[in-house]
Write a structure and sequence with these properties.
Structural class: alpha+beta
Strand order of the largest sheet: 2-1-5-3-4
Strand content: 5-15%
Bound molecules: iron/sulfur cluster, FE2/S2 (inorganic) cluster
Largest sheet: 5 strands, mixed
Shape: flat
Distance between the termini: 61 Å
Radius of gyration: 24 Å
Helix content: 25-40%
């Protein structure tokens, strides 16, 4: 069944404008059928149907990982998954909101962990139960090679885990599929922290800037900003100099903030 969306169907808040003539399709949320515009993401379609996101929603842009969603399609036995803010609805999509994955999150003192495989063994021993089935890779909305970074962890290659998992948004979908009940994403975060702390080359520029901050170089500038009125702040913001997309060799006209 299809109907046409009214001309003035502009959603408030995210300013979604539904084009005239957009087809309405049925989706099911927790067993109840709703007709929603076919162009919407799951998140916007649920809001269109009257739901309000208080949890399971953050950036709305595929970055924060808060909106992991599992769904089925009519007549299809497969279980699909995706980010609700990025996945467009399909006719007869059956949606169920799932709770956040209560994955093991180890407590550790990064200063006391060794920079080798024993750090992983001590904090996330379940990593070594991985049977290399690849279910985690298939479900990852960021197209990360999750199984490969698990293999790197089992070899104790902390740098490889860090590099391969850099775009992880901590959505937890990999964990939801793991037959070995491992916790890929928290383990990978540990490796990124370890690599940042012990493995990665230190940046001279960052060290210099930290010293400048400690020495109070920016205190007068912050005080000046704090003294401005809201209108003055807005004016400064609107008139600020923009860094170009390709900024190699670029310097702002005003260099006292560098
Ligand atoms: S690795 Fe796991 S937690 Fe990270 S983005 Fe992929 S599925 Fe989500
Ligand atoms: S789903 Fe679990 S067992 Fe399978 S490859 Fe990924 S981490 Fe290993
Ligand atoms: S709301 Fe942040 S990834 Fe979907």
């Amino acid at each position: 069944m299809t109907t046409t969306v009214a001309k003035d169907a502009m959603r408030k808040g995210d300013k979604t404008v539904i084009a005239e003539g957009t087809r309405m399709i049925p989706i099911y949320v927790m067993g109840k059928r709703y007709y929603v515009p076919e162009t919407l993401t799951i998140q916007k379609a649920m809001e269109y149907a009257g739901y309000q996101f208080i949890r399971s929603c953050g950036c709305r842009g595929g970055i924060c990982g808060a909106c992991a969603t599992v769904y089925r399609l009519e007549g299809d036995y497969k279980l699909y998954s995706g980010l609700a803010c990025q996945t467009v609805v399909q006719p007869n999509m059956y949606l169920v909101q799932i709770p956040f994955f209560p994955a093991n999150k180890a407590a550790y003192d990064i200063e006391k962990l060794p920079y080798d495989i024993t750090a992983i063994q001590e904090t996330y021993p379940e990593t070594f139960r991985c049977v290399q089935c690849n279910a985690c890779t298939k479900v990852c909305p960021m197209d990360l090679e999750v199984m490969y970074y698990m293999a790197a962890a089992i070899r104790g290659d902390i740098e490889a885990v860090a590099e391969m998992s850099r775009s992880c948004i901590m959505c937890g979908l990999c964990t939801s599929r793991c037959p070995a009940e491992t916790n890929q994403y928290n383990m990978a975060e540990l490796c990124r922290r370890l690599y940042g702390r012990y493995g990665q080359k230190k940046s001279k520029n960052v060290a210099k800037r930290v010293e400048e901050i400690k020495a109070g170089k920016y205190d007068p500038m912050i005080k000046e900003l704090q003294s401005l009125s809201l209108d003055e702040l807005k004016k400064r913001y609107e008139e600020r100099e923009w860094e170009p997309v390709i900024s190699e060799g670029w310097e702002p006209k005003e260099t006292k903030y560098l």
